[in-house]
Amino acid sequence: MEEKFNYEEFERASIERLKKGEALLGQDGILTPLLKQFLEKAMEGEIDHHLDESERSKGNRRNGKRKKQVKTCSGQFELETPRDRQSSFSPEIVKKREVFLGADLEHKIIRLYARGMSYEDIKSHLSEIYDLDISHGKISGITDKVLPELEAWRNRPLDALYAILYLDAIHFKVREEGRVKSKALYNVMGIRTDGHKDLLGLYIGESEGAKFWLSVLTDLQNRGVEDVLIACIDNLSGFSEAIESIFPKTRVQLCIVHQIRNSLRYVLHDDQKAVVKDLKLVYQAPNLEQAENKLLELEENWGEKYPVVIRSWTKNWDRLSTYFDFPQVIRKAIYTNNPIESYHRQIRQHTKNKGVFPSDKAVLKLVYLLSQNIMKKWTMPMQKWALVVQQLAIIFEDRLTNHLRL
Questions:
Q1: H or E element: which one contains 80?
Q2: Which of 178, 250, 313, 361 has the smallest CB count inside 10 Å?
Q3: Taking the mean position of all CA atoms in its chain, how far away is CA 360?
Q4: Which alpha helices (DSSP H) does 51-195 contain, by range?
């Protein structure tokens, strides 16, 4: 006959042991007997429910018990699980082959992965802290559970209008068909009409190109974006035309910082400080007329020595100078791609030691999780947004005011 559990005696003994500083859980923990009995009683109820009349009519009966060691965050203990003759019983409270009684174990693994930890780092952490031996495949399977969430997020409806879009790509090494390739992860950050940042999408493809950006913009349109006031991009060939083919009213601003970086690639080291000083006179000019005068002076000073640099500035000047059409407070928000560059720096902090990713899926999965953590900090609107949005409303009239979140 099974011995009845004496709760009053257990309570008295537990209080005494707790006073002595003994652990609550673990092999000899204070609460382990109660947890053990609760789980075993629950599984007894589950097998009774399983062995209903239908099961018994098929000859299925109880078939003793199986012992296994189960672990918690605080230790381990032995658990007896009931069995049936036909092995069709599968308990829910402690599943078959489940050896860790931590409902949040999967969440722990996903949180560790979202911090940029490798599978090996996660495996070592779980082994050291919880004495668990989990394979890379198991960890991968657990992190894969975010994929449906990722796809739902990537396909969610978007706002009809965004005041500003920042578009840029970040590159990763990915193994594909036995070869290591450089892949571009295309990112789109939008400034909503309330001034808050939002990451609109993640798209992975081959090396960065305008053709793929066209497919990204088409996806944004299909998800509900009808209009974009200003788009800030780098000087990728065909990129501006791709934007204007989908959103024809959008003003395109080429990133000044990208343009300077590209220019300095063709300037001797000894001349770079002087060239940058002259470039500042161009892009920091108070208005378009003075900027164009300084651009002419730049050509006079450096055109003969660095014709490629000057040609790039003059050829792209229409879109490099877009920000001069706006008041100073808007200029600061659009003359560079700094907001998305800052986001990329945070992603790099957690991926710089990753080396080669095993697949495109692995890149998307990790960057998505990292992005969710980053976006939690985007709680404030863009600096001086109250002033920015009023000026945008005057410049763009009904295009913006019809969509304001008031």
A1: strand 75-84
A2: 178
A3: 14
A4: 53-57, 105-114, 119-130, 136-143, 147-154
Return all residues near 268 (Cβ < 8 A) that are at least 6 apart: none
pLDDT tens-digit series, residues 368-377: 999 998 999 9
Q: Give the whole-angstrom CA distance, residue 193 versus residue 230.
A: 12
Q: How confident is the model at residue 290 (pLDDT cuts 50, 70, 90)?
A: very high
Helix (H, G, I), strand (E, B) or coil at 84: strand
On whether the CB atoms of residues 182 and 207 are closer than 8 A, the answer is yes
Closest CA relative to residue 163, chosen from 230, 251, 250, 254? 230
Contact in structure between 160 and 400 (CB atoms under 8 Å): no
Buried b (16+ CB within 10 A) or exposed e, 64-81: eeeeeebbbeebbbebeb
26 vs 263: CA distance, rounded Å: 64
Model pLDDT for residues 164-221, shown as the tens digit of each residue: 999 999 999 999 888 999 999 999 999 999 999 999 999 998 877 889 999 999 999 9
Q: Is residue 75 pLDDT above 70, yes or no?
A: no
What H or E segment, with its residue span, contains residue 165?
A: strand 161-176
For the segment 228-247, the average pLDDT, to the nearest whole number, is 93
